[in-house]
Design goal:
This protein has about 375 residues and is an alpha/beta fold. About 45% of the residues lie in helices and about 20% in strands. It has a 5-stranded parallel sheet, sandwiched between helices. It has a 4-stranded parallel sheet with strand order 7-6-8-9, sandwiched between helices. The chain is globular, with a radius of gyration of 23 Å. It binds (3S)-3-methyl-2-oxopentanoic acid.
């Protein structure tokens, strides 16, 4: 009996231990597109977040607490995105939300999460006006207004003088990207010969493309998400657009999905990007290696941006000193981070401060390389 009691002696210490509150996880949410036609974006983002989280949780935050990440699927749908955010706030008590994926969704979700005073950070939202939604809305993605002018400059350097613009008129990112393309083209003195729009779910672009073909522009700029951009390119090739036409995309085109859907039809398309897989610095190369090992495929821009964001959030929680959304918001503003995207700080308006490092990529054989 005595020996037995000795064995259980450590249990006597338990009531004492129980008096110390358990170190609860810090709940963080993400609203991303995991199903439907735009799932490639959200799945890349989720992968980037999860890879970073493994590293973050080795040390934890706030002296050893783990971040518990819950990713909800928005399916690219505004109402579903709002419901997802409400669930994350109400059920999971998240202290920060990453996402949603599309600007279109952020314009719906942002007002809700801003009102609930939950810091909400887009990692892929590039439309004009995202952070104007309110003081709790941040983004780590470079807006199209910082990227498109660089892309058009590249096209001009390649000899482009005339351009036709096409855009999806039912998506906030696509419309905003078009406005930016138009303004940037005008600023560079390019001659805009045609402006044509379509719906994101359209599959027939022949009327618009036939009209544009007759005008023989040097370039065609397309502001849309990856499925319609792919559809436009496939049909353009059928209608006889060849290498003489410089196709130009926006952030929606900067996905390997473009090569998967459009194949050789996407060859030659150029797009500006804040990140490139071949970035030689050690941090990026380690990220690419770890991503390949975990997911058995290459990361894309969306994964890279999400990867950095998770570290930015973890550091902000630490600086906040508590799992408190208000304090995390203030701490986010003091972000000073260097990740796979390079050095990162927020402007007082909660946009990325540095526009350095934009590279122009060109699609060739289903892969993006540096445009020459
Ligand atoms: C936006 C975008 C999309 C291409 C993200 C996937 O840039 O909606 O703002």
């Amino acid at each position: 009996m005595l020996r037995r009691a000795a064995l259980f002696a450590p249990l006597l210490a338990l009531p004492l231990l129980a008096a110390i509150p358990a170190r609860a996880d810090v709940p963080v949410g993400a609203v991303e597109i995991l199903s439907g036609p735009n799932a490639a974006y959200g799945i890349a983002i989720k992968s980037g977040l999860e890879l970073a989280l493994e590293e973050v949780n080795k040390k934890g935050v706030l002296g050893g607490q783990k971040i518990a990440l819950t990713v909800e699927d928005s399916a690219g749908n505004k109402d579903q995105a709002i419901n997802a955010a409400r669930k994350l706030i109400g059920r999971d008590k998240v202290v920060t939300i990453i996402g949603p994926t599309l600007s279109n969704e952020m314009f719906a979700v942002g007002p809700v999460t801003n009102e609930r005073r939950i810091p909400t950070i887009g990692t892929s939202t590039t439309a004009t006006g995202i952070t104007d939604i309110g003081p709790f809305i941040f983004r780590t993605s470079l807006p199209e207004s910082d990227v498109i002018p660089v892309t058009l400059k590249k096209a001009q350097a390649r000899g482009v003088k005339t351009i036709a613009l096409m855009y999806a008129n039912d998506d906030a990112f696509s419309k905003s990207g078009f406005d930016v393309m138009q303004a940037a083209a005008q600023k560079l003195g390019l001659n805009i010969v045609a402006i044509e729009s379509f719906g994101s779910k359209d599959s027939d672009f022949s009327a618009q493309l036939t009209k544009i073909k007759g005008l023989k522009p040097d370039a065609v700029g397309i502001s849309a998400l990856v499925e319609p951009v792919s559809g436009v390119l496939l049909q353009a090739r059928q209608l006889g657009f060849g290498k003489e036409t410089q196709f130009i995309g926006g952030n929606g085109s900067n996905s390997p999905k473009l090569g998967e859907i459009a194949g050789a039809a996407a060859d030659g398309l150029i797009v500006g990007s804040p990140w490139f897989i071949g970035k030689p610095d050690e941090v990026n190369q380690a990220f690419v290696k770890a991503f390949r090992a975990k997911f058995n495929k290459d990361p894309d821009q969306f994964a890279a941006q999400a990867y950095d964001c998770m570290f930015i959030v973890a550091a902000a929680i630490d600086r906040a000193g508590a799992a408190d959304p208000e304090k995390i918001r203030d701490a986010l503003l003091k972000t000073s981070f260097s990740g796979v995207m390079g050095p990162f700080t927020f402007t007082p308006g909660r946009d990325p401060a540095s526009t350095e490092g934009v590279v122009v990529l060109e699609m060739q054989g289903g892969k993006f390389g540096i445009a020459k």
